[in-house]
Amino acid sequence: MKAANKNRIQNLTTLAMLAALAVVIGLFKFPIFPNVSFLEFDFADLPVLISTLLFGPVSGLGVLFIVSVIQAFLLGGNGVIGLIMHFIASGAVVLLFGLICRKKKSVSRLSLSAVLGTLAITALMIPLNYIFIPILFHVPTQMVTDFLPYIIAFNLIKAGVNTALACIMWVPVNKLYTGLSNKK
What we know:
Layout (H helix, E strand, L loop, with lengths): L2 H24 L3 E2 L8 E2 L3 H11 L1 H18 L4 H22 L6 H31 L3 H42 L2
Antiparallel strand pairs: 1-2
Helix pairs in contact: 1-2, 1-3, 2-3, 2-4, 2-6, 3-4, 4-5, 5-6
């Protein structure tokens, strides 16, 4: 087998494993605010961000799309609306990570992408909640307004933790992947 094909197969296998890991990790959810237990924290975006750092934003978006579809339709993730919300919000983080860190993955670039990604997902989830939650759960928009402080805090915490962990894990994961890639 030619080296280019072997590399391509290895990259696709790695992306598939990261997508599968994201799906499995996403099964373990927990509320962080007892009075709004429907806002459930998980670490599913972490493997998606790692795939973005390893292979770029297009691959990261591909992994995110696969994970979003599986979560939305097979794991009770609120169908099309859940898919749209998850893909738009997490997609912004993937794009920021991928574009900011495309050329160089320095501490400052990783940190910048984590901060901007956290702010982007938090900002995007405000209008997405106002648009989709009343449709999905047949509730008035006032309910979204009532829960808005929790929605903002939840997204800041969830995105902040996931992006910070992606930054911390980047160096060992990259060393591992590079080491495995060089053993041909």
